[in-house]
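Researcher: Quick test of sequence recovery. Tokens follow.
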């Protein structure tokens, strides 16, 4: 049985809307101005010499589980990153790429993240099962490259449901607190 509207409710509604005028609507959505897109910066061929002087690739040890945080990162924020509780804004899949192409793609991706003002991203590097000697080349390279990037505050291997040791969660510098290079 349908619920019928009580006459008192109908009268109340009619008196509430008696002075309402219908809108003229022709079915076309009004024009909305969209902001122009930001151009993506082109990745550099090689890292700048000043950046590579800070740390040698041989100084970075790559374990099965990766964990890195710059000094000053709160333990609570790092724990949330490790558990996957921070929302992932964007994802980059590098596995299967050569190291040179992966580096250029990573630089373009991080520049895009800066323009989009993103806070947390996931980078898939793979586990290296098809690499020579079954060693994860991109994982080792990412462990080095991300430590050198000024926008990267922390990174860790993702939980099993999100790629495990074949993916990284990367915490980027707060877009509202970007530091100015000196």
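Model:
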């Amino acid at each position: 049985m349908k619920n019928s509207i009580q006459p008192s409710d109908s009268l109340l509604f009619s008196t509430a809307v008696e002075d309402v005028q219908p809108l003229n609507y022709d079915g076309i959505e009004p024009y909305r101005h969209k902001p122009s897109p930001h151009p993506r910066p082109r990745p550099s061929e090689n890292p700048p010499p000043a950046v590579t002087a800070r740390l040698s690739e041989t100084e970075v040890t790559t374990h099965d589980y990766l964990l890195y945080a710059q000094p000053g990162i709160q333990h609570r924020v790092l724990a949330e990153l490790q558990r996957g509780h921070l929302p992932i804004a964007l994802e980059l899949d590098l596995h299967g790429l050569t190291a040179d192409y992966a580096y250029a793609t990573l630089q373009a991706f991080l520049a895009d993240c800066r323009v989009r003002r993103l806070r947390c991203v996931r980078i898939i590097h793979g586990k290296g099962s098809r690499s020579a000697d079954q060693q994860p080349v991109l994982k080792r390279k990412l462990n080095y490259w991300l430590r050198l990037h000024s926008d990267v505050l922390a990174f860790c291997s993702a939980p099993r449901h999100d790629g495990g040791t074949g993916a990284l969660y990367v915490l980027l510098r707060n877009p509202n607190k970007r530091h100015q290079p000196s």
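The longest strand covers residues 152-157.
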